[in-house]
Write a sequence for this structure.
């Protein structure tokens, strides 16, 4: 491990970099095993929860509650025949899934799983290592993971993987920006970029003095910095390519995206990377926003809650909540269209994150300099101005809408031309089809009959087919 | 030699070696990837000099964003999975001489200017977030802020050069409405004549 | 809390906001106009942008005038605000205001600006025709222009190499873009932008290498630090020499001095003429300011090392500018070579220095102002002589212009006479000041060469005048467009300045003499 030989700047993170090699080894192996087992569990968990949401049972045959199902699936997947298409760039083709999976694991090494514990009589923090810029390390590892996807897509030498890879990496880069910006507010608040110090900073809430009334702020940054938390939550779903942002794997458009040409073990690695990434971003969210391994409120009343091995439990519980949210989203929301998704990232998340960051910085600067009164008056003024502007905007928009409505009504007065542009076109809502009523009724009757009777002929069947198509289209959108 | 020193030399060798491969490989995508290795090795060097912040920002920005965008550009234009014969140029020797000269001059600069300069890794914090932030936001605050203006200008320029206000096909409602009356008038003319 | 602890450790920088206000105004309004571009409906953009640009530049000019007499290092020593800086700021701002007027001109080209309707549409495509037909305008040119002006203000004020480099980039990047946005002859314009960009990037790289070497030599990049190191260190002159040479390449490129002038004719010809005017005047002013500050303040003690190099460059520049201008058949290219020749005259004043820099500095300041007014005016006149395909820049089209439009031709003749340095024009006073300063500085051979070059140059200026007045106009010659008040004002200011500075140069000369003090 680099951290062991790397000279740390003096005075920071004194608890780290002192472990003997065997403890480091134990920790590394433990994290790897933990992530592997968690992935297997996660697949099962996802299938069970989604099944529950869809009023099914889900896997329930192998092992208790079907717990061994995903293990069996994994073994089967890895034992499948390896197919390597012609014309691939062999080295990169093999390297891509490895990069993807490795980076997913590496990022976890700076996540604090618990406080200092004793392993075979040796006091050590429950965390592989930490850096003064630990969170940047996680982000850097995530950005390296993108290479797995880009290269996987390109080295396959095939169109769909290439497009899928580009699409997915564009997605990850875009959402990485929003994610990083969401974290800036946490850095500002905690005054540190090291994961363990951020957890430490969430131990107790700070007090704020508003017009003489002292308010105790909650200690979790997820509450204090709620907008950051929400932005991070959205960005982390985008970053991990999960539903509703699972565009790289939009089957209807791209087959299986960058994984199309992969099979067997290599496919498994991509699969593993996705699930480990889910755990990693969840763990980072826990660390940054939910107090890390610290016990949540009612439990934290118990004095021993934050000592020994107990915190590992709280940590796992919080991570599981995030994983449940991932699955919940997948069970609930349809996939977004790519342009909608990009618009959300660039036009909403990033600007909001920027404004929020500036706000937090201003708040920190003015409050710590003792300008409480000015600060709150300033906020009040801004709110009032925004409200006024929104009234103005509403008035203008209402007038414009009215004008548009009038215009639309005028446009409706124009007679409907069923062959505008030389092709038959359907009428817009409110438009009448002159002289075509009998024919339209006949077609409608024919397509209605198509479902019940086979005898209605070609036209009816075609109509039904079109209906099905458009239904699918809507589902995808 | 201490571990740090050995590692530093190794990373330096990796950086130089992969940089050479960047310019000698005939596969254009591979060249970009060797660049990743170069930048990564440099980040490693920064790490060994306790400049953690600089190191990870280097990975995050250069490896994670700049080269990925480079790859995008390559893959969206032409990036065959086979070696590109056009990647060889007869000017290579000239370029090599120029590069060697430039490298020589820079090495001379370093040796002449900084040979014997020692950084005490145990005491000084040079590339950490705090020191970097302190330098950027105090001594260099004006150039730093002006740089952000430069980036803004570049963004505006990129948008100017790429944004299309006129769609290629008149598909929006406004365009349709524009063409409608004209056709009507045509029809009327035809029917009246 | 840790962060409060941090706040105590961190010493926040002192920025003399009042003193750097001109910079802040220009950059701030540039950002505001980007926002305006994003949110305003299309029909409001052009008037808003014109008002914003003119207003910010005028405000900055007023503040600059109010700063007269300041002498300090501001913003943690990043910029030097002294008489020299303020004089250049004033000059650049005045020239920029005139340039905005040219940029905003809509009357001469059928009610639209001279910039591409839509830069993204390929030349000759349906999309381009449609954009033209819809009378679209790219009003983003105004914020880009303001960014460039901001860079130009920072460039001669920069007091360390890093700030200077950043300023160089800030002024260059928008110009690369603006060069490629001509409405007419777009391929030529795009080629110009491409050439300018590639060569400019190359020159920036040279500057950066030079910076690295000077840093290696001095261990600092502040000008005073470098000056101190030159006095203290001996034996590492190689680094100093190489660094000086490379930094000089970067700056001489911007000035358009030979042998780094190759881009000038193509870019001046291809760029929209308003931008050419802006570049010819303001870039030259800013770059000469930076050159003077760097070489006088930081490298002044090493004068004996760089003077021979600049001598060679000055002679080459004079030769190339004067001789090649003779062979040009396009008025914009001819003016480009003329600008190269003027760079040569300015270099004579710059290099002919012995002990006291103030005479040379004030001469150059005066020359820059005089040349700037005349050159913007000349390019403004070029925008007016048009035919169906846009500006008629070929010299054969200018034949007999004096018969067709005596006023425009006379104005052009005045500017050309000023370029030639005929007495009673500003150009004569400028040349006189520069040559006498160089003579006193001991560079008499250069002065002799300069005088010869002026004679050669006068020949091609006079040739154009002869063409305009003493030939019969062609049957289907170009027409002279009737400009709006914008271009009229620009030309009028140019004429007025050229005449006034020719007849009564004393006030400006005195101002330049007072301004010729550099802190560092």
């Amino acid at each position: 491990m680099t951290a062991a030989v790397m000279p740390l700047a003096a005075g920071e993170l004194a608890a780290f970099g002192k472990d003997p090699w065997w403890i480091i080894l134990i920790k590394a192996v433990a994290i790897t095993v933990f992530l592997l087992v968690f992935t297997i569990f996660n697949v099962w968990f996802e299938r069970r929860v989604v099944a529950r949401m869809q009023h099914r049972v889900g896997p329930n045959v192998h092992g208790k509650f079907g717990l061994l199902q995903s293990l069996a699936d994994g073994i089967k997947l890895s034992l499948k025949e390896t197919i390597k298409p012609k014309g691939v760039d062999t080295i990169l083709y093999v390297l891509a899934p490895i990069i993807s999976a490795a980076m997913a694991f590496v990022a976890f090494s700076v996540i604090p799983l618990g406080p200092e514990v004793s392993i075979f009589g040796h006091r050590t923090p429950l965390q592989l290592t930490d850096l003064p810029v630990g969170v940047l390390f996680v982000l850097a590892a995530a950005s390296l993971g993108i290479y797995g996807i880009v290269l996987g897509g390109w080295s396959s030498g095939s169109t769909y993987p290439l497009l899928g890879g580009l699409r997915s990496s564009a997605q990850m880069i875009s959402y990485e920006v929003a994610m990083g910006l969401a974290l800036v507010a946490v850095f500002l608040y905690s005054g540190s970029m090291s994961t363990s110090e951020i957890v430490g900073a969430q131990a107790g809430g700070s007090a704020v003095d508003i017009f003489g009334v002292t308010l105790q702020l909650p200690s979790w940054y997820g509450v204090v910095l709620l907008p950051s938390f929400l932005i991070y939550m959205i960005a982390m779903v985008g970053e991990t390519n999960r539903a509703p942002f699972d565009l790289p794997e939009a089957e209807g458009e791209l087959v299986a995206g960058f994984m199309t040409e992969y099979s067997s073990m290599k496919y498994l690695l991509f699969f593993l990377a996705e699930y480990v990434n889910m755990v990693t971003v969840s763990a980072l969210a826990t660390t940054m926003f939910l107090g890390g391994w610290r016990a949540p409120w009612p439990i934290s009343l118990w004095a021993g809650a934050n000592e020994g091995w107990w915190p590992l439990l709280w940590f796992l519980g919080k991570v599981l909540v995030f994983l449940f949210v991932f699955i919940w989203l997948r069970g609930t929301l349809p996939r977004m269209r790519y342009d909608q998704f990009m618009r959300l990232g660039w036009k909403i998340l990033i600007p909001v994150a920027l404004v929020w960051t500036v706000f937090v910085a201003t708040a920190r600067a003015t409050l710590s300099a003792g300008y409480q009164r000015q600060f709150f008056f300033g906020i009040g003024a801004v709110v009032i101005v925004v409200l006024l502007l929104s009234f103005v905007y509403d008035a203008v928009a209402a007038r414009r809408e009215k004008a548009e409505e009038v215009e639309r009504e005028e446009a409706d007065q124009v007679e409907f031309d069923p062959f505008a542009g030389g092709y038959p076109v359907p009428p817009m809502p409110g438009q009448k089809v002159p002289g075509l009523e009998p024919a339209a009724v006949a077609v409608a009757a024919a397509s209605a009959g198509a479902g019940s009777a086979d005898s209605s002929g070609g036209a009816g069947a075609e109509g039904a087919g079109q209906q099905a198509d458009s239904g699918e289209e809507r589902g995808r959108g | 030699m201490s571990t740090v020193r050995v590692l530093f030399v190794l990373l330096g060798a990796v950086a130089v070696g992969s940089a050479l491969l960047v310019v000698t490989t005939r596969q254009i995508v591979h060249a970009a990837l060797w660049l990743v290795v170069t930048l990564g090795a440099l980040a490693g060097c920064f790490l060994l000099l306790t400049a953690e912040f600089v190191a990870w920002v280097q990975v995050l920005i250069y490896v994670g964003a700049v080269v990925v965008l480079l790859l995008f550009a390559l893959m969206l234009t032409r990036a065959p999975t086979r070696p590109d014969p056009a990647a060889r140029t007869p000017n290579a020797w000239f370029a090599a001489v120029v590069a060697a000269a430039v490298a020589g001059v820079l090495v001379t600069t370093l040796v002449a200017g900084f040979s014997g300069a020692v950084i005490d890794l145990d005491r000084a914090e040079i590339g950490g977030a705090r020191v970097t932030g302190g330098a950027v936001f105090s001594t260099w605050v004006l150039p730093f802020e002006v740089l952000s203006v430069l980036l803004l200008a570049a963004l505006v320029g990129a948008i100017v050069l790429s944004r299309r206000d006129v769609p290629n096909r008149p598909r929006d409602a406004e365009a349709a409405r524009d063409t409608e009356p004209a056709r009507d008038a045509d029809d009327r003319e035809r029917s009246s004549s | 809390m840790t962060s409060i602890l941090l706040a105590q450790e961190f010493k926040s920088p002192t920025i003399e906001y009042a003193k750097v206000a001109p910079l802040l105004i220009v950059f701030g309004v540039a950002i505001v106009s980007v926002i305006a571009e994003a949110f305003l409906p299309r029909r409001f953009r052009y008037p808003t942008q014109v008002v914003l640009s003119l207003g910010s530049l005028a405000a900055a000019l007023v503040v600059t005038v109010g700063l007269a007499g300041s002498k300090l290092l501001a913003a943690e020593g990043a910029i030097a605000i002294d008489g020299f800086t303020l004089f250049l700021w004033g000059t650049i701002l005045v020239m920029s205001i005139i340039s905005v007027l040219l940029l905003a001109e809509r009357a001469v080209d059928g009610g639209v600006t001279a910039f591409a309707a839509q830069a993204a549409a390929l030349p000759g495509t349906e999309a381009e025709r449609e954009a033209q037909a819809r009378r679209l305008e790219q009003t983003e040119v105004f914020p880009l222009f303001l960014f460039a002006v901001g860079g130009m203000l920072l460039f001669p004020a920069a007091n360390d190499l890093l700030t200077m480099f950043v300023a160089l980039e800030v002024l260059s990047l928008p110009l690369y873009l603006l060069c490629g946005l001509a409405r007419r002859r777009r391929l030529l314009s795009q080629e110009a932008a491409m050439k300018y960009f590639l060569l400019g990037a190359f020159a920036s790289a040279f500057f950066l290498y030079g910076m690295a070497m000077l840093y290696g030599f001095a261990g600092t990049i502040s000008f005073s630090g470098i000056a101190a190191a030159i006095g203290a260190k001996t034996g590492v002159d190689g680094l100093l020499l190489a660094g000086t040479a490379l930094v000089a390449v970067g700056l001489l490129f911007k000035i358009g001095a030979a042998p780094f002038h190759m881009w000038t004719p193509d870019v001046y010809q291809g760029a929209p003429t308003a931008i050419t005017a802006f570049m010819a005047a303001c870039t030259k002013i800013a770059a000469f300011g930076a050159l003077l500050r760097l070489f006088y303040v930081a490298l002044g003690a090493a004068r004996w090392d760089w003077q021979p190099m600049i001598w060679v460059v000055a002679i080459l520049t004079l030769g190339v500018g004067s001789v090649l201008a003779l062979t040009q058949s396009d008025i914009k290219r001819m003016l480009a070579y003329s600008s190269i020749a003027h760079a040569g005259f300015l270099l004579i004043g710059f290099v002919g220095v012995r002990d006291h820099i103030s005479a040379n500095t004030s001469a150059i300041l005066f020359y820059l102002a005089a040349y700037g007014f005349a050159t913007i005016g000349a390019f403004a006149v070029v925008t007016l002589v048009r035919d169906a395909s846009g500006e008629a820049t070929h010299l054969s089209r200018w034949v007999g212009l004096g018969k067709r439009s005596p006023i425009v031709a006379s104005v052009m003749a005045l500017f050309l006479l000023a370029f030639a340095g005929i007495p009673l024009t500003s150009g004569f006073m400028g040349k006189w000041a520069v040559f006498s300063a160089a003579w006193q500085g001991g560079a008499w051979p250069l002065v002799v060469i300069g005088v010869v070059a002026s004679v050669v140059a006068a020949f091609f200026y006079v040739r154009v005048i002869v063409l305009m007045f003493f030939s019969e106009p062609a049957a289907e010659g170009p027409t002279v467009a009737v400009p709006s008040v914008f271009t009229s004002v620009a030309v009028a200011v140019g004429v007025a300045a050229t005449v006034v500075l020719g007849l009564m140069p004393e006030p400006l000369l005195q101002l330049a003499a007072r301004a010729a003090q550099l802190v560092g």
Notes: Chain A touches chain C at residues 188-192, 197, 201, 206, 364, 368 (CB under 8 Å). Chain A has one domain: 16-367.
